[in-house]
């Protein structure tokens, strides 16, 4: 099994993408709704990543 | 109508038991059994990708451990999360994967990816259960 080294940003984006796909599939009833919800979840994840990253950066001083 | 409102409609376990068991063992297989191959394939790919990325980042697998409350919750919770990946976890365990819990953000992410794969599979199992019992189309 090859070893993979990712940055915080890459790992959290991959995590967000895979979680968003599953959340989209299981919560909505039509394919269009699923796609939109998955995209919405992914956007929320990314917003949270940037928001928390800035918060930690500014909090760290 | 009023008499029925307090009752919970029960669906025989024979109707959903196999689907849920298969959905646990092979992520996405419950949906394939219910003739939802597109959703099954996406779920299988997502859970497997999450688990394999966790392995490639050399994440640690949890072993059940007791101690204070926090230790018990973390280690048992992590173990159950790992276990819910089904065959992915069982094969990894049987093939001797034994990564110690090392410091470093990549290992840390790997450990979280391995647990998250199991948690995503729980969501897939619940979805398969709801389809099998007719609560969802």
Briefly, what is this?
The complex is a heterodimer of chains A (61) and B (137). Chain A is mainly α and 61 residues long. Chain A is built from two helices and no strands.
Characterization of this structure:
- The complex is a heterodimer of chains A (about 60) and B (about 140).
- In chain A, about 80% of the residues lie in helices and about 0% in strands.
- Chain A has helices at about 10-25, 30-60.
- Chain A has about 60 residues and is an all-alpha fold.
- In chain A, helix 1 (about 10-25) runs antiparallel to helix 2.
- The mean pLDDT of chain A is about 90.
- Chain B has about 140 residues and is mostly helical.
- Chain B has a domain at about 60-135.
- Chain B contains 7 helices and no strands.
- Chain B has helices spanning about 1-5, 15-25, 30-35, 35-55, 70-85, 85-95, 105-130.
- In chain B, helix 5 packs across helix 7.
- Chain B starts with a helix and ends in a 5-residue tail after the last helix.
- The model of chain B has no long low-confidence stretch (mean pLDDT about 90).
How is this fold's topology laid out?
The complex is a heterodimer of chains A (61) and B (137).
Chain A: H1 8-27, H2 31-60
Chain B: H1 2-5, H2 13-25, H3 29-33, H4 37-56, H5 69-83, H6 87-94, H7 105-132
Helix pairs in contact in B: 2-7, 4-7, 5-7
Please tally the helical runs of chain B, counting DSSP H or I stretches of 4 or more residues: 7
Shape of chain A: flat
**Greatest interface by residues involved:** A-B, 19 and 25 residues
Tally of distinct domains of chain A: 1
- Beta percentage of chain B is under 5%
Q: Biggest sheet of chain A, in brief?
A: none
Note the main sheet of chain B: none
Mean pLDDT of chain B: 89
- Quaternary structure: heterodimer
User: Number of helix segments of chain A?
Assistant: 2
The SS-based structural class of chain A is: mainly alpha
Radius of gyration of chain A: 15 Å
Instruction: Name the beta content range of chain A.
Output: under 5%
Distance between the termini of chain B: 24 Å
Runs of chain A in which pLDDT lies below 50 for 5 or more consecutive residues are: none
């Amino acid at each position: 099994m090859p070893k993979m080294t990712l940055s915080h940003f890459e790992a959290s984006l991959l995590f967000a993408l895979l979680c968003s796909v599953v959340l989209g599939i299981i919560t909505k009833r039509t394919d269009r709704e699923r796609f939109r919800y998955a995209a919405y979840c992914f956007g929320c994840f990314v917003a949270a990543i940037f928001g928390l990253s800035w918060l930690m950066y500014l909090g760290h001083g | 109508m009023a008499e029925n409102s307090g009752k919970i409609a029960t669906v025989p376990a024979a109707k959903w038991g196999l689907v849920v068991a298969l959905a646990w063992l092979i992520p996405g297989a419950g949906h394939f059994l219910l003739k939802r191959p597109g959703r099954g394939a996406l779920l299988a790919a997502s859970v497997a990708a999450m688990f394999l990325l966790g392995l490639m980042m050399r994440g640690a697998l949890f072993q059940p451990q007791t101690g204070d409350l926090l230790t018990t919750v973390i280690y048992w919770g992590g173990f159950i999360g790992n276990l819910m990946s089904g065959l992915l976890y069982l094969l990894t365990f049987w093939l001797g994967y034994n990564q110690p819990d090392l410091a470093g953000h990549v290992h840390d992410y790997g450990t979280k990816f391995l647990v998250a794969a199991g948690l995503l599979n729980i969501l897939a199992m619940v979805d398969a259960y709801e389809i099998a019992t007719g609560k969802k189309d």
